[in-house]
Each structure stands twice: as structure tokens, then as C-alpha cells.
Amino acid sequence: MSHPSSARALVVEDDPAWQQILGEILADCGLAVDVAGSLPGAITAIQSQPHRLAVVDLSLSPADHNNTDGLRVLEAARQRDPHCLTLLLTGFATVELAVSALTQYGALTFLRKENFHRGQFRTLVNQALASAPVGAPSSRPAVSTVSGAARSLPPARPASAAGKALVVEDDAGWRGILGELLADAGFAVRTCSSFGDALGALRREKYALAVIDLSLNGRTWEPENAPDQMEGYPLLESTRANGIPTIVVSGLASPAEIERTYTEQGIFAYLEKQTFERAAFLRLVEELRRQRSAETEFAALTEREREVLDLLAQGLTNKEIGEKLFITANTVKRHLKAVFEKLDVHTRAAAAARALAEKN
């Protein structure tokens, strides 16, 4: 669904990761996005120009979970930009605060970060914008909720055959973000918030992918915090031992630690939370999936088929391959037909290219 290019949305959120996630979704919905990370910044943005929609975090002070500056933003929007629809999004709130946001401050709906679903949020935004054109605030749709998801929204898309993915993250917001991205990529997602929960999951089930935060106990990187004290490291040892490709998404960004994690733990990729990008994460997941698919295809080849493929990649003809392996040219053709089917290729050149890529 597209909207006029002049339509703007405001994101009021102090967490850069959530700023990016919300901004990307709103931009995908056809809105120009303004971002504010504090109450003064939000007031300035509201006074500067009108907005069709504002998504506001309740707490705008990371050090104070009791902060409710978001309610003041809702009030300012109601008074100074009355045609702006507002959505409250937060990880810290009671039911009483949620009801207050809806009834006293005019919020369209209340969404909890721990239950946030990307697809549902996108649908909610499009529904709100379609039902409330600028200049007609009375047409707001009745989709208010205090449970974290609008009643009219569709269920999450079911996971496909991509396999199971494990997310190990103690922060509810990041756990939800990573889980949603992997679910959208077709994985059945299991999320864990602690070392013990994750270790148990790894021992009970097989996973095609793991995404792990290094610090599962609230630590930030300090020189005196030895890496061995970070609970994510033993989990990396477990995923490596079980052959599970692993992506680290962590706030610990010491160059030495990043290098050590690649070298000693054999991880697939390391992403820093400070510079996390949805598109980059999904590209890595797709790259990993293609790599695993190729490994599975090559694993299906018999020993003789591998020998034939290796000689083909060296540029030998069917006759030359047969002479090397002491088999007939017709037998070589049968082996190559099986190789083409298993690798899903149709030419000798494509099969040779796959063989060379697999060796590199």
C-alpha cells in the first residue's frame, strides 16, 4: 500500500536498534520518517511539521525504567498535531498505564516490545493510514488493545522447511527482533534468554542455525571482564561441537574479541548491535542457507560420482575420465547424469563450476 509522498511518520524511541526497525517498516509503508530520541526532540519534531502517524516508546530514559516521557509525547501530539495517529510501543508498562495511554492520551493502540511482530505491525500501520486520512481524525479504527497485538491482525506466517533456528538473547527487545527476522526468513524459531535454557535446547534438539549474544547477564564490555566470564562463549563451543553454524549479534565490540571469536569458535559471522542492519542480517542468513544447501547436495554424491565430478572439473572428456577410473564412457555418462540431478545443474560447465566453488 502506498501513501502520498508528503505523508510523514515520527518515531520517538531512545534505542537505536528499535529506531531502525520501526523506521524501515514505516518507510516500507510509503512514509517519510522523522526520528527523535528524547522528549525535547519529539516536541520539536511535532511542532515542526504535521505527521500522519507517531510511534512512541513509553520510556525515553534507558537508565530509568519508570520514565513515562512517552505519555507527554502523546499529549503533545494530541494538542499540537490532532490529526496524527499515535501508537505506544514499550517494554515497560502495566495494564493501568496501557489503559491510560488509550483512554486519556488518545493512542490508537498499545504494543508490547516483547510481543512485537513485524508483519502485524506493518498491517496495523496500513490499516490505520487507510482508515484515517489527514483531516479526518474521527475515522480512527477501533483496534485498541492492551495485550500487545491488534485483534484484527493476521497470524504470523508459518515457518517453511528452512529448519529450526535458536536465538539466545537476554534482552527481550532484541530477542523479539531477531526471532521475527528469522521467522520471516522461513525458520521455526526457538528463543532462549539464559545460558541454562539455551544449553538445554541445544542438547534436546537439532538446529540449522544459532544466533547468540555473548553477554547473557547484563554485562557490558570492560577490560576486567574476561571473555571466559561471558556466558555466550560456552554456547559457541557447544554449537561448534554440534556443527551448528552460528551468527553472533552482540554489544561487545572489542576488535580483539571479535577476531578471537572468529578464530577460536569458528562462527559464521559477527554483527555488532551498535551498527545492526536488518538487510545485512538477512543477507547473511540467506548466504548461510545457500551454503548449507550446497553442502547437503554434495553430501548426496556417491564416492564414484565425486571422482567423476573432480575429473570433469579438471577439464577431462568422458573418454579420459573413463580411462582414469577404468570404466566405460557410457558409465561415465550415467554418473554425470546423477551428478547433474543431485546438484540441480544442466551443463558440464555448471557442474565444474560447482565443484570448484565447493573446494574453495
Explained architecture:
With 360 residues, this protein is an alpha/beta fold. It has three domains: 8-139, Response regulator (Rossmann fold), CATH 3.40.50; 164-294, Rossmann fold; 300-359, Winged helix-like DNA-binding domain superfamily/Winged helix DNA-binding domain (Arc Repressor Mutant, subunit A, Orthogonal Bundle), CATH 1.10.10. 47% of the residues lie in helices and 13% in strands. It is built from 14 helices and ten strands. The strands form two sheets. A five-stranded parallel sheet has the order 2-1-3-4-5, with helices on both faces. The radius of gyration is 26 Å and the shape is elongated. 35% of the residues are buried. Mean pLDDT is 81; it is low at 132-160 and 219-225.
List the main descriptive attributes of the protein structure presented here.
10 strands; Rossmann fold; 360 residues; 5-stranded parallel β-sheet; single chain; alpha/beta; elongated; Arc Repressor Mutant, subunit A
Structurally, how many domains make up the residues? 3
Main sheet makeup:
5 strands, parallel
CATH architecture classification of the largest domain: 3-Layer(aba) Sandwich
**What value does the average pLDDT take?**
81
* Measured distance between first and last alpha carbons: 44 Å
What overall geometry do the principal axes of the alpha carbons give?
elongated
Give start-end ranges of low-pLDDT stretches.
Answer: 132-160, 219-225
SSE inventory with pairings:
Layout: E1 8-12, H1 16-28, E2 32-36, H2 39-48, E3 53-57, H3 69-80, E4 85-90, H4 95-103, E5 109-112, H5 118-131, E6 164-168, H6 172-184, E7 188-192, H7 195-204, E8 209-212, H8 232-241, E9 246-250, H9 255-265, E10 269-272, H10 278-299, H11 303-313, H12 318-325, H13 329-343, H14 348-359
Parallel strand pairs: 1-2, 1-3, 3-4, 4-5, 6-7, 6-8, 8-9, 9-10
Helix pairs in contact: 2-3, 7-8, 11-13, 11-14, 12-13
